[in-house]
Design a protein that fits this description.
Layout: H1 2-17, H2 21-46, H3 53-101, H4 112-132, E1 137-142, E2 156-165, E3 176-181, H5 184-189, E4 193-199, E5 201-203, H6 210-215, H7 221-224, E6 226-227, E7 231-232, E8 239-248, E9 254-263, H8 264-270, E10 274-276, E11 279-289, E12 292-294, E13 299-300, E14 313-317, E15 323-326, E16 331-342, E17 348-356, H9 357-405, H10 417-435, H11 440-454, H12 459-471, H13 475-490
Length: 491
């Protein structure tokens, strides 16, 4: 119990004298733990765990896809409704003209004058439709031809095709209208300039689904409308997509088609690229065949800096936040959504938003570099802190060891209670040597001889030996010889 009280007393004294070595070690290892944490942060940042760029990109794409799909679906639904109304109006006007001339519809074949009269009569309705609709052109085609004996008469059909030329901003009221197809008499009577690639009749062979529409004999008009997909406009450098609605007689027989044109230029002006941190978001209206995006039949909005062209096929690979569209040589990231319309082949049309993959990859690389740089800075700071703290821990010990070597222990406290206690003990051995007027080495030698004679190996055993003498009341027997030795040393 006595020994336990002495130990407690020493500990209490150590707490009041300075910061314990244990506390310093705790702080040192804590800083090392922070250094390890920084290393872990560095590793996970290299693997992209902390990067949420892909998720944010997917959210931006989702918003843009929703807006694009809503805009395209709204425009196409509106054009479909207006084209159905146009079909019904043209049917009424055609019946009126045929009745006034006492003709049947089949009698229009090989009668250029009658065809010109019908086109002139139908022109106002078509022109009004063009001016009031979100499109770049309007057309109707009758299943008749002015000369059945001409080569190519099987695919040549009478009709009127009005187009805007030199398109400016969408919604402008002063767009210039030209006659792309139709009789010269109709153009002159309406005072409409002829297109520089004008022809009197249309080549229906270039219109996908035309024959299909002629043969259909049942269903509502809304169910029989179709989009052609992207087609080359004959005799021009332009490409367009056409909305085709059947023209019916009172018995439901198909007399031809009518509808709207969306040209490349009109589509680019209507759907400009949206700039984002990930690159230009491009709007695409394309048929979807399974997991394939048919770019060759797609209408593409303004490409911005994406260099997206309408050719080839992109294979879609569904991802967590976005899809990857690639043909092996080019890769785009994006999302698509069907808009409820089909093309002439029965394929669903989808609103697609595409972004070149290089934009996201560059942004991810920058984000990763920021994480790496931050982790490296944090790691360096923790290493410096660890070095500083360890040096602060080792320096007092080194200084104390140097004091022991120079035989001046205790002159400059180390601030570490355990070290200061050790120095106090060493200093006490010096005081014994000083009092006996002998060197420290001689005192150590005497201690060694005493321990050997008493049969002890450590100071703790010696103290236990002295304690036993004290309890037996024989401590004076040890003290008396020491006094005699001291007297002999002084003489």
């Amino acid at each position: 119990m006595l020994r336990l009280r002495e130990m407690r007393s020493a500990l209490e004294k150590a707490k009041t004298q300075g910061v314990s070595m244990q506390r310093r070690l705790v702080l040192y290892w804590f800083s090392m733990a922070l250094a390890i944490l920084a290393a872990v942060l560095l590793v996970v940042s290299l693997t992209g765990v902390f990067s949420n760029t892909a998720q944010k990109f997917g959210q931006s794409l989702t918003i843009q896809k929703h807006n694009t799909a809503s805009a395209l679906a709204g425009q196409m639904d509106q054009l479909t409704a207006q084209s159905i109304a146009l079909s019904e109006e043209l049917t009424r006007e055609l019946d009126k003209q045929l009745a006034a001339g006492g003709r049947t519809f089949s009698a229009l074949n090989d009668d250029p004058g009658a065809i010109a009269a019908v086109e002139t009569a139908l022109y106002p309705a078509l022109n009004t439709y063009l001016k009031s609709s979100a499109c770049s052109g309007a057309v109707f085609c009758l299943d008749a031809t002015a000369n059945t004996a001409l080569p190519g008469a099987a695919t040549s059909r009478a009709g009127l095709y009005l187009r805007y030329s030199a398109l400016r901003a969408i919604g402008a009221t002063d767009q210039h209208v030209t006659c792309f197809r139709g009789t010269a008499e109709t153009a002159r009577s309406a005072q409409v300039q002829m297109h520089n690639r004008w022809n009197p009749e249309l080549n229906v062979q270039a219109v996908p689904g035309y024959t299909q529409l002629l043969r259909a004999s049942d269903g509502r008009l809304a169910e029989r409308c179709l989009w052609t997909g992207r087609i080359a406009l004959p005799d021009t450098w332009e490409s367009v997509t056409l909305l085709c609605v059947p023209l019916l007689d009172s018995a439901g027989n198909v007399r031809g088609v009518c509808g709207a044109e969306l040209s490349d230029l009109y589509f680019r002006l209507t759907y400009p690229a949206v700039d984002s941190a990930y690159g230009s978001m491009v709007t695409v209206l394309a048929p979807i065949d399974g997991d394939r995006l048919l770019l060759a039949q797609a209408m593409i909005g303004s490409p911005g800096g994406s260099y997206l062209t309408a050719d080839g096929t992109l294979t879609c690979k569904t991802g967590r936040y976005y899809n990857t569209y690639s043909d092996g040589s080019r890769t785009y990231l994006g999302l698509h959504e069907p808009i409820g319309a089909t093309d002439a082949a029965g394929r669903k049309l989808a609103a697609v938003v595409l972004v070149p993959d290089a934009g996201l990859r560059a942004l991810e690389a920058r984000s990763r570099m920021v994480w790496i740089a931050g982790s490296l800075v944090f790691l360096a700071a923790m290493m410096l802190l660890s070095t500083y703290l360890s040096r602060r821990f080792v320096t007092p010990i080194s200084r104390s060891l140097q004091a022991i070597r120079e035989q001046t222990p205790g002159e400059h406290p180390s601030g570490i209670s355990e070290i200061d206690e050790l120095l106090a003990f060493v200093r006490s051995l010096e005081e014994v040597a000083a009092r006996a007027y002998i060197s420290v080495s001689t005192a150590k030698k005497h201690n060694t001889n005493i321990n050997r004679k008493l049969g002890v190996t450590s100071r703790e055993e010696l103290m236990l030996y002295i304690d036993l003498f004290r309890r037996c009341g024989r401590l004076d027997e040890i003290a008396a010889p020491r006094a005699e030795d001291t007297a002999r040393c002084t003489t």
